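Please predict the structure of the following assembly.
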Amino acid sequence: MTATFKEGDLVLLYQDPRRHWITRIREGRFHTHRGYLDLKDLIGLEPGRLVKTSLGQPIAAFEPRISDLVDSFDRPTQILYPKDVGYALYRLGLKSGDTVVEVGTGSGALTAAIARSVAPNGRVYTYENRREFLKSAQKNLEKTDVSQLVTFRNVDPSEGFLEREVDAAVIDLGDPWKMVQPAWEALAGGGVLAGFTPTMNQLEKLAEALRMNGFLALEAVELLVREFKTETGKVRPESRMVGHTAYVTIARKVVPKE
Amino acid sequence: MTATFKEGDLVLLYQDPRRHWITRIREGRFHTHRGYLDLKDLIGLEPGRLVKTSLGQPIAAFEPRISDLVDSFDRPTQILYPKDVGYALYRLGLKSGDTVVEVGTGSGALTAAIARSVAPNGRVYTYENRREFLKSAQKNLEKTDVSQLVTFRNVDPSEGFLEREVDAAVIDLGDPWKMVQPAWEALAGGGVLAGFTPTMNQLEKLAEALRMNGFLALEAVELLVREFKTETGKVRPESRMVGHTAYVTIARKVVPKE
Amino acid sequence: MTATFKEGDLVLLYQDPRRHWITRIREGRFHTHRGYLDLKDLIGLEPGRLVKTSLGQPIAAFEPRISDLVDSFDRPTQILYPKDVGYALYRLGLKSGDTVVEVGTGSGALTAAIARSVAPNGRVYTYENRREFLKSAQKNLEKTDVSQLVTFRNVDPSEGFLEREVDAAVIDLGDPWKMVQPAWEALAGGGVLAGFTPTMNQLEKLAEALRMNGFLALEAVELLVREFKTETGKVRPESRMVGHTAYVTIARKVVPKE
Amino acid sequence: MTATFKEGDLVLLYQDPRRHWITRIREGRFHTHRGYLDLKDLIGLEPGRLVKTSLGQPIAAFEPRISDLVDSFDRPTQILYPKDVGYALYRLGLKSGDTVVEVGTGSGALTAAIARSVAPNGRVYTYENRREFLKSAQKNLEKTDVSQLVTFRNVDPSEGFLEREVDAAVIDLGDPWKMVQPAWEALAGGGVLAGFTPTMNQLEKLAEALRMNGFLALEAVELLVREFKTETGKVRPESRMVGHTAYVTIARKVVPKE
């Protein structure tokens, strides 16, 4: 944990489940609909402290987790949900020091989460051929403290990733099957691939490409998350929920016996 | 990635989705229902290599991920599923170097996953007052390469954890509400708590205790995971699935304004 | 099926999944955002016919099913969804000629579906102590062709239903446990009860009351329905879904051995 | 409700959620693992009565609902679950007096549920080209009181159903798209079709055939049902659940403007 907040730190200002914001501590006021904060007043406070707006409204000042930061990213594309990100990171088996290739970068949400998992000395090479997305992702990553672990490549890797012997490959674009062979070449033996596909047709084609191109231990899942109201005496799932984001496919590279 | 397998390494031998085993590379044979392997033959191979049993059956030799290891743990208690572990690790915001307290240890499954997330220089203090569980967990942890990051405590922490200023607290036992106040005291400001509760009644009492004892940003969710068959032309969810494991509650410590 | 539409019939005008309306065939125009229909032009047409608006927009004129009518009801209260209604009707075992008591009427949605199930010669006695809800429900029921099978009672039945030897009892109000004993008295031996409860606390109390008051074969379920996009090559669940409506509890009256 | 049980009636003997049986009341004993019943002793009892076995074990004697009967059917094929049957019956809008065509009959489970919905004067024409399935279904239907409403046809209707102007068509076989055109011809205008498809590929092809062949108001859904434990203080979903049965597609016949 950060000992205390200092100028330039990012802070998560939390009022209630619907009102929370990420901002940087600098000269100036942060305005809410119920009073403002002088951001400089946060300097020297330990994270988690409850402070009050000019109108006496309490707000907690938290150090943002990577999932908070990702949630605040500008998103030109559909963003993956914590249910999918958490599952994939765990099943990819990412750890400090790992090297990962990713395509496409999109908003950089997954890039950030991966970089966080391989910090402090791992590396993420992320490919995105739409330049405006790459720029947006770069800007998003600057909000995190892991941007220095990310190499952005404005290249289409369907002809091949530049990296070799990587620990994991992550594919999150519309035609993931095109990246299966390049990913196989980039991965070390036993390296893990994760693919995200919104439609069952994409899932079908990705799974077939993986089976045909040297991957084993394939598993495809769909995660559903239900949020709960927990008021005493009135416990129940929320009335609305996210119905679908993407199928998550995990598989591992095998190397034929010589 | 491990460059090549060497004596003493753990290996995941993968035949198909229902037949895979974790074993240690040493003198001797590993028997499957379709032939055996001489384990010494794996020494010097790169992970991910397809080898053949004495009867010509192909088997892949993978380096186990932490989720593979956890899946192979002896489990005196209900074990958490990847859907829950992945989500909780991500929402806890764990990172290399973090310090975590956990109660109770159970089979050590979550302990191992947490230790993996805070490696190489973080630390997990795990509390379990049932001595036989603790022993089983210690034995399980020895299968991983992160056991040196874990301190086992055969103590009931309801009177207080021994640690202070920890980054995260994880509660996985039958009466989690008793651990809320001790967890608050152990956590640094803004530190994150995760609780796992199988019943709605436990969820209700845990949530109430969190709201009454200085936690904010409470969210309670339930995750469902559906496995898919991906054979071309026959894509469909599996006929059976896990219906329920536990509700996952996440909240953050707040410190009142002085 | 109605041979052909005639004046006074209700018609479901269907343009697309988001634009469909129920109206009565009478003198006058029905306006859509893309032209109008002269409703009289529908007279003499067989149901299911595609007609065109004044601007050439095709619209199908269907005979409304009971589920279409219910969907168009004014709803002062939360309405039950087809997933719950269909399941409950089937598990209640309702059939032509059955007699049913219901409390509370609410918008009359479930009342209409039950009446449809017991038509043409069954009967529904529905209790609602909020007079304005009862009026709204009566008006809603008039849209259906089963209103003559419904007896509305502006009475609180917690002291006892007026009916005896009924085939089924349906409880859909906030404190369903209060109606368990009255329902037992109203039901014939083996009669089936269905209860709808949004929270798990209500479910818990209802289930306990049923077990304590002469009911057996208790089952409690929660139904989730996921809508699918079925465009060729892009099959996937919808991005948003209903997360929760109510738990459905079914149980049967037993009569102790004399 | 049956006034009292008489010889020849079917009875549901209910001991607990895992031990319940359907049998016919006749001369002889019904043996359970905890004593037997003289079935003749049930004659003259009202349904719902608790009786005792020779060893004093209480058992409730219920009149079986159609869903109980269906649950007891011999099933050469995968049987549909109440979640799917209830939803489909409700969305088909079936009512007393309706005429329905069905293909294939399978175990007759859906046939029975449909017949129950259109009783006492409706009719179901069910097509099954596998003779052994048809025989099994006929035997199953004889357990119900609606078998006289069912006409079995050992014919492949892909060349055309024999019926015309039916209210509903139900398709439950492996290549449902072949039955779309025949169903259109058999249905009255606005008539409703329901199709059941286990795989997403079948769903995709069925939906396309419906859109291409004169059907509108298409909706495709998947239903999940979770059973709950409701013991006081320990409310939670069951640990295991059915993961998937079939996608349910509903659509209505439209007739082009002349």
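Residues 68-253 of chain A form a domain with the Rossmann fold fold (CATH 3.40.50.150). The radius of gyration of chain A is 21 Å.
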